[in-house]
Amino acid sequence: QVRLIETGGGLVQPGESLRLSCAASGRTLSTVAVAWFRQAPGKEREFVGSIQRDSRGGLKTYTDSVKGRFTVSRDNDKNTVYLQMNSLKPEDTAVYYCAAGDGSLDYWGQGTQVTVSS
Length: 118
Fold this sequence. Notes:
The protein is mostly beta strands. It has strands spanning 3-7, 10-12, 18-25, 33-39, 46-51, 60-62, 70-75, 80-85, 94-101, 107-108, 112-116. Helices cover 0% and strands 50% of the residues.
């Protein structure tokens, strides 16, 4: 059974940083694509960023609104993918989810709340 667990969410002020973690069990994350999504209240879930599996060079992609502020990375020894979020804005407030899979994102975490407010 594959499990993804997101941690690291919280309440921060605008301009501050957070690092989210997506820890996996039951599957090696370096062999699948891992993506971060977020869903704000009353809005649809949106793609944030992703990292491809090692055999595809670990290519990273981001949605335009977070480029230059967010970074996806992976620690293969810890079987964990991170989302480093810098210069946070109130509009980044959402529940953040990680998802993983090979070809399709079959596995999802439970989400972690990020709130950016002064």
